[in-house]
Protein backbone atom coordinates (compact mmCIF):
# COMPACT_ATOMS: atom_id res chain seq x y z
CA UNK A 1 0.00 0.00 0.00
CA UNK A 2 1.42 3.40 -1.03
CA UNK A 3 1.13 5.87 1.82
CA UNK A 4 -0.07 9.32 0.80
CA UNK A 5 2.58 11.89 1.71
CA UNK A 6 2.32 15.65 2.01
CA UNK A 7 3.48 17.86 -0.88
CA UNK A 8 6.60 19.99 -0.80
CA UNK A 9 6.17 23.25 -2.73
CA UNK A 10 9.51 24.77 -1.71
CA UNK A 11 11.62 25.75 -4.71
CA UNK A 12 15.01 24.07 -4.88
CA UNK A 13 17.18 25.27 -7.78
CA UNK A 14 19.99 23.04 -6.50
CA UNK A 15 23.67 23.28 -7.36
CA UNK A 16 22.78 23.24 -11.05
CA UNK A 17 20.51 26.30 -10.59
CA UNK A 18 17.55 24.72 -12.38
CA UNK A 19 14.76 26.94 -13.69
CA UNK A 20 11.60 26.39 -15.70
CA UNK A 21 10.75 28.25 -18.88
CA UNK A 22 7.30 28.28 -20.48
CA UNK A 23 7.61 30.13 -23.80
CA UNK A 24 5.36 33.02 -24.76
CA UNK A 25 2.96 32.20 -27.56
CA UNK A 26 0.48 33.77 -29.96
CA UNK A 27 -2.82 35.19 -28.76
CA UNK A 28 -4.95 32.28 -29.99
CA UNK A 29 -2.71 29.51 -28.68
CA UNK A 30 -3.97 26.57 -26.65
CA UNK A 31 -2.10 27.74 -23.54
CA UNK A 32 -1.11 30.91 -21.72
CA UNK A 33 1.36 31.32 -18.85
CA UNK A 34 0.97 34.06 -16.24
CA UNK A 35 4.32 35.04 -14.78
CA UNK A 36 2.75 37.15 -12.02
CA UNK A 37 0.65 34.17 -10.84
CA UNK A 38 3.24 31.51 -11.77
CA UNK A 39 0.33 29.64 -13.30
CA UNK A 40 -0.30 27.87 -16.60
CA UNK A 41 -3.71 28.09 -18.27
CA UNK A 42 -4.23 25.52 -21.02
CA UNK A 43 -6.82 23.60 -23.00
CA UNK A 44 -7.64 19.96 -22.42
CA UNK A 45 -5.19 17.41 -23.92
CA UNK A 46 -3.20 20.10 -25.75
CA UNK A 47 0.58 19.84 -25.91
CA UNK A 48 2.41 22.39 -23.75
CA UNK A 49 6.20 22.73 -24.23
CA UNK A 50 8.34 23.41 -21.18
CA UNK A 51 12.10 23.86 -20.94
CA UNK A 52 14.19 22.93 -17.92
CA UNK A 53 17.31 25.11 -17.84
CA UNK A 54 20.49 24.70 -15.82
CA UNK A 55 23.48 26.98 -15.27
CA UNK A 56 25.85 24.07 -14.90
CA UNK A 57 25.41 20.31 -15.01
CA UNK A 58 27.38 17.72 -13.07
CA UNK A 59 28.73 14.96 -15.33
CA UNK A 60 28.71 12.54 -12.40
CA UNK A 61 24.92 12.94 -12.13
CA UNK A 62 24.12 11.86 -15.70
CA UNK A 63 21.62 10.85 -16.84
CA UNK A 64 19.18 13.35 -15.34
CA UNK A 65 15.51 12.46 -14.94
CA UNK A 66 12.36 14.52 -14.45
CA UNK A 67 9.49 13.45 -12.21
CA UNK A 68 6.19 15.34 -12.54
CA UNK A 69 3.53 15.06 -9.82
CA UNK A 70 0.32 17.11 -9.41
CA UNK A 71 -0.99 18.13 -5.97
CA UNK A 72 -3.90 20.18 -4.73
CA UNK A 73 -2.45 23.50 -3.63
CA UNK A 74 -4.77 24.24 -0.69
CA UNK A 75 -3.93 22.76 2.70
CA UNK A 76 -7.52 21.50 3.07
CA UNK A 77 -7.04 19.08 0.15
CA UNK A 78 -3.42 18.00 0.58
CA UNK A 79 -4.47 14.46 1.49
CA UNK A 80 -6.58 14.14 -1.69
CA UNK A 81 -5.06 12.60 -4.81
CA UNK A 82 -5.15 14.45 -8.14
CA UNK A 83 -6.44 11.98 -10.72
CA UNK A 84 -8.73 11.95 -13.75
CA UNK A 85 -12.51 11.95 -13.56
CA UNK A 86 -14.44 8.79 -14.41
CA UNK A 87 -15.79 10.28 -17.65
CA UNK A 88 -12.37 10.97 -19.20
CA UNK A 89 -10.92 7.75 -17.80
CA UNK A 90 -13.66 5.66 -19.42
CA UNK A 91 -13.48 7.65 -22.67
CA UNK A 92 -9.82 6.76 -23.17
CA UNK A 93 -9.46 3.02 -23.59
CA UNK A 94 -6.21 1.18 -24.21
CA UNK A 95 -3.47 3.50 -25.46
CA UNK A 96 -5.57 6.41 -26.75
CA UNK A 97 -3.37 8.93 -24.90
CA UNK A 98 -0.23 6.86 -25.10
CA UNK A 99 -0.80 5.63 -21.55
CA UNK A 100 -1.50 2.02 -20.71
CA UNK A 101 -5.06 1.45 -19.48
CA UNK A 102 -3.70 0.37 -16.08
CA UNK A 103 -2.38 3.94 -15.62
CA UNK A 104 -5.33 5.71 -17.19
CA UNK A 105 -6.06 7.67 -14.01
CA UNK A 106 -2.96 9.84 -14.51
CA UNK A 107 -3.80 13.52 -14.89
CA UNK A 108 -0.50 14.45 -16.58
CA UNK A 109 1.08 12.86 -19.63
CA UNK A 110 4.71 13.39 -20.65
CA UNK A 111 5.16 13.09 -24.40
CA UNK A 112 8.22 10.91 -24.29
CA UNK A 113 8.43 7.36 -25.68
CA UNK A 114 9.99 5.84 -22.55
CA UNK A 115 8.00 7.79 -19.95
CA UNK A 116 7.27 5.73 -16.86
CA UNK A 117 3.89 6.14 -15.16
CA UNK A 118 4.21 5.27 -11.51
CA UNK A 119 3.12 6.17 -7.99
CA UNK A 120 5.19 8.67 -6.03
CA UNK A 121 4.30 9.93 -2.56
CA UNK A 122 1.11 7.90 -2.86
CA UNK A 123 0.02 9.79 -6.00
CA UNK A 124 -0.01 9.21 -9.78
CA UNK A 125 3.27 10.54 -11.15
CA UNK A 126 5.28 10.31 -14.36
CA UNK A 127 9.04 10.13 -14.87
CA UNK A 128 11.22 10.44 -17.97
CA UNK A 129 14.89 10.84 -18.84
CA UNK A 130 15.97 14.37 -19.74
CA UNK A 131 18.03 15.15 -22.81
CA UNK A 132 20.11 18.28 -22.15
CA UNK A 133 21.58 20.29 -25.00
CA UNK A 134 23.32 23.57 -24.20
CA UNK A 135 22.05 23.14 -20.62
CA UNK A 136 18.42 23.05 -21.80
CA UNK A 137 16.07 20.04 -21.77
CA UNK A 138 12.62 20.13 -23.44
CA UNK A 139 9.62 18.53 -21.71
CA UNK A 140 6.23 18.30 -23.43
CA UNK A 141 3.18 17.81 -21.21
CA UNK A 142 -0.53 17.23 -21.69
CA UNK A 143 -3.22 17.65 -19.04
CA UNK A 144 -5.94 15.05 -19.40
CA UNK A 145 -8.82 16.46 -17.32
CA UNK A 146 -10.52 19.83 -16.98
CA UNK A 147 -10.22 21.80 -13.75
CA UNK A 148 -14.02 21.86 -13.64
CA UNK A 149 -14.47 18.07 -13.88
CA UNK A 150 -16.72 16.76 -11.10
CA UNK A 151 -15.31 13.87 -9.11
CA UNK A 152 -11.77 14.91 -9.97
CA UNK A 153 -10.26 18.40 -9.72
CA UNK A 154 -13.74 19.81 -9.08
CA UNK A 155 -12.57 23.45 -9.50
CA UNK A 156 -9.82 23.05 -6.91
CA UNK A 157 -6.46 24.73 -7.55
CA UNK A 158 -3.50 22.47 -8.21
CA UNK A 159 0.27 22.80 -8.28
CA UNK A 160 2.55 20.74 -10.47
CA UNK A 161 5.82 19.74 -8.79
CA UNK A 162 8.67 19.16 -11.25
CA UNK A 163 11.56 17.31 -9.61
CA UNK A 164 14.92 16.77 -11.29
CA UNK A 165 16.74 13.60 -10.24
CA UNK A 166 20.23 12.32 -10.96
CA UNK A 167 21.13 8.90 -12.35
CA UNK A 168 20.86 7.42 -8.84
CA UNK A 169 17.39 9.01 -8.42
CA UNK A 170 18.63 11.48 -5.82
CA UNK A 171 16.78 14.79 -5.79
CA UNK A 172 18.80 17.56 -7.47
CA UNK A 173 16.17 20.26 -7.94
CA UNK A 174 12.49 21.13 -7.49
CA UNK A 175 10.36 23.55 -9.52
CA UNK A 176 6.67 24.36 -8.97
CA UNK A 177 3.91 26.06 -10.96
CA UNK A 178 0.11 26.20 -10.87
CA UNK A 179 -2.20 24.83 -13.57
CA UNK A 180 -5.75 25.48 -14.71
CA UNK A 181 -7.16 23.36 -17.54
CA UNK A 182 -10.00 25.24 -19.21
CA UNK A 183 -11.79 26.02 -22.48
CA UNK A 184 -10.44 29.58 -22.81
CA UNK A 185 -6.93 30.11 -21.36
CA UNK A 186 -6.70 33.75 -22.48
CA UNK A 187 -10.01 34.67 -20.85
CA UNK A 188 -9.26 32.87 -17.59
CA UNK A 189 -5.73 34.26 -17.21
CA UNK A 190 -7.08 37.81 -17.56
CA UNK A 191 -9.80 37.16 -14.97
CA UNK A 192 -7.44 35.62 -12.41
CA UNK A 193 -4.78 38.32 -12.83
CA UNK A 194 -7.45 40.99 -12.40
CA UNK A 195 -8.78 39.23 -9.29
CA UNK A 196 -5.27 38.93 -7.85
CA UNK A 197 -4.60 42.65 -8.38
CA UNK A 198 -7.90 43.53 -6.72
CA UNK A 199 -7.18 41.28 -3.73
CA UNK A 200 -3.68 42.73 -3.47
CA UNK A 201 -5.13 46.23 -3.22
CA UNK A 202 -7.64 45.20 -0.54
CA UNK A 203 -5.49 42.82 1.46
CA UNK A 204 -4.63 45.41 4.12
CA UNK A 205 -5.71 48.78 5.50
CA UNK A 206 -3.82 51.31 7.61
CA UNK A 207 -5.21 53.63 10.30
CA UNK A 208 -3.44 56.13 12.57
CA UNK A 209 -4.82 57.06 15.98
CA UNK A 210 -3.82 59.57 18.67
CA UNK A 211 -5.21 59.89 22.16
CA UNK A 212 -4.50 63.13 24.03
CA UNK A 213 -0.78 63.59 24.52
CA UNK A 214 -0.02 59.94 23.95
CA UNK A 215 2.30 58.69 21.24
CA UNK A 216 0.70 58.16 17.82
CA UNK A 217 -0.36 54.56 17.18
CA UNK A 218 -0.65 53.02 13.71
CA UNK A 219 -2.97 50.05 13.17
CA UNK A 220 -2.42 47.70 10.23
CA UNK A 221 -5.24 45.26 9.41
CA UNK A 222 -4.19 42.36 7.18
CA UNK A 223 -6.55 39.75 5.74
CA UNK A 224 -4.20 37.02 4.54
CA UNK A 225 -2.31 34.99 7.17
CA UNK A 226 0.75 34.43 4.96
CA UNK A 227 1.06 38.17 4.30
CA UNK A 228 0.53 38.92 8.01
CA UNK A 229 3.37 36.55 8.94
CA UNK A 230 5.74 38.28 6.50
CA UNK A 231 4.82 41.76 7.77
CA UNK A 232 5.12 40.68 11.41
CA UNK A 233 8.54 39.13 10.77
CA UNK A 234 9.73 42.35 9.14
CA UNK A 235 8.25 44.41 12.01
CA UNK A 236 9.94 42.26 14.67
CA UNK A 237 13.28 42.59 12.86
CA UNK A 238 12.94 46.37 12.69
CA UNK A 239 11.98 46.61 16.38
CA UNK A 240 15.04 44.54 17.30
CA UNK A 241 17.31 46.75 15.18
CA UNK A 242 15.77 49.87 16.75
CA UNK A 243 16.42 48.53 20.26
CA UNK A 244 19.98 47.58 19.35
CA UNK A 245 20.63 51.09 18.01
CA UNK A 246 19.13 52.61 21.16
CA UNK A 247 21.29 50.41 23.37
CA UNK A 248 24.35 51.29 21.31
CA UNK A 249 23.60 55.01 21.66
CA UNK A 250 22.99 54.64 25.40
CA UNK A 251 26.25 52.71 25.79
CA UNK A 252 28.15 55.38 23.84
CA UNK A 253 26.59 58.15 25.96
CA UNK A 254 27.40 56.30 29.18
CA UNK A 255 31.00 55.81 28.02
CA UNK A 256 31.34 59.54 27.27
CA UNK A 257 29.96 60.46 30.70
CA UNK A 258 32.41 58.16 32.47
CA UNK A 259 35.34 59.54 30.47
CA UNK A 260 34.27 63.10 31.33
CA UNK A 261 33.95 62.24 35.02
CA UNK A 262 37.37 60.56 34.99
CA UNK A 263 38.99 63.67 33.44
CA UNK A 264 37.34 65.96 36.01
CA UNK A 265 38.59 63.80 38.88
CA UNK A 266 42.12 64.00 37.52
Automatic annotation (TrEMBL):
Location in or out of the cell: Nucleus
GO process terms (BP): apoptotic process
Cellular component terms per the entry's GO annotation: nucleus
Keyword Transcription assigned: yes
Alphabetical keyword list: Activator, Apoptosis, DNA-binding, Metal-binding, Nucleus, Transcription, Transcription regulation, Zinc
UniProt entry tagged with the keyword ATP-binding: no
InterPro entries, per database record: p53-like_TF_DNA-bd_sf, p53/RUNT-type_TF_DNA-bd_sf, p53_DNA-bd, p53_tumour_suppressor
Cofactor note: Binds 1 zinc ion per subunit.
Binding annotation for Zn(2+): 85, 88, 145, 149
Cofactor (UniProt): Zn(2+)
GO molecular function, one term: RNA polymerase II cis-regulatory region sequence-specific DNA binding
Superkingdom field: Eukaryota
Domain p53 DNA-binding: 13-195
Family the UniProt entry places it in: Belongs to the p53 family.
Protein name, UniProt field: p53 DNA-binding domain-containing protein
Organism: Argulus foliaceus
